[in-house]
Design a protein that fits this description.
With 244 residues, the chain is mainly alpha-helical. It has two domains: 87 residues, Alpha Horseshoe (Serine Threonine Protein Phosphatase 5, Tetratricopeptide repeat), CATH 1.25.40; 121 residues, Alpha Horseshoe (Serine Threonine Protein Phosphatase 5, Tetratricopeptide repeat), CATH 1.25.40.10. Helices cover 73% and strands 0% of the residues.
């Protein structure tokens, strides 16, 4: 008898726990976010949109799912899917209109977010954002910039120079004619000349630069680099004062 009573009570508690209203679920998600329980907040909102798809809070919950995934969890794919679901399922709502704007501006959002993540020393996440962009938006006008930023991250943050060269090379191979192309070629030569101490490779890359971009603003710097390849500071007249 006692066992049956306990089971009955547990059943009632379970039913009560599962019968939260849309408003209660929405408020619970807010509380969980305040406590940095993002996964629980997501679960609350997903329950809301599943159980109460016609409720006035459903469009807000769906849009909020996008915001949490993008801004709290840094998950682009899930965030984009939630934005698209907001547009598809709640067309005409304020949230759907805003979601469509964010979808249209998604490449710009990714670049800005990558820069923000880098400043916060979240370099791995910044790389993931840029890789997503260069894979999903290969034809977008900002794709060359995203690819160049990848090279810059590997160059200056990870100090992984072979990978940096590889990423800069992709700018040249995949985005010929972009404003980042010449800068990427310059950086490859610069790494060979000044970082990994490979003057032969540097001369090849710099020579290619002058051949393709003779009038570029970086051309004088390239000529200067070629003239003093393999030489120390004390052997360069313009820099000799640094060691004296």
């Amino acid at each position: 008898m006692k066992t049956k009573l306990i089971i009955s009570l547990l059943g009632l508690l379970l039913i009560a726990g599962c019968s939260k209203t849309a408003s209660e679920l929405f408020e619970l998600s807010n509380e969980n976010l305040k406590d940095k329980k993002t996964d629980q907040a997501i679960e609350d909102l997903e329950t809301l949109v599943t159980k109460y798809p016609q409720d006035s809070l459903a469009s807000q919950a769906q849009y909020k799912l996008a915001s949490i995934n993008l801004n709290w969890k840094n998950e682009l794919a899930s965030g984009y899917a939630a934005l698209q679901a907001t547009v598809n399922n709640y067309g005409g709502s304020i949230q759907a209109i805003q979601a469509q704007k964010e979808i249209d501006q998604f490449p710009e959002y990714i670049l800005n977010k990558a820069e923000s993540l880098r400043k916060r020393k979240m370099v791995k996440e910044a790389v993931e954002h840029l890789m997503y962009m260069t894979e999903k938006y290969t034809q977008h006008e900002l794709a060359p910039k995203g690819q160049y930023m990848l090279g810059d991250l590997y160059m200056n943050e990870f100090r992984d120079f072979p990978i940096a060269i590889q990423e800069y090379r992709k700018v040249i191979e995949n985005f010929a004619g972009s404003s980042q192309e010449a800068h990427a070629l310059f950086m490859i030569g610069y790494i060979y000349a000044n970082v990994v101490n490979d003057p032969k490779s540097a001369e090849i890359e710099y020579g290619e630069f002058l051949k393709r971009f003779p009038n570029h603003e970086l051309a004088p710097s390239v000529k200067f680099e070629i003239e003093f390849l393999g030489k120390g500071i004390e052997e360069i007249p313009a820099l000799k004062h640094i060691t004296s």
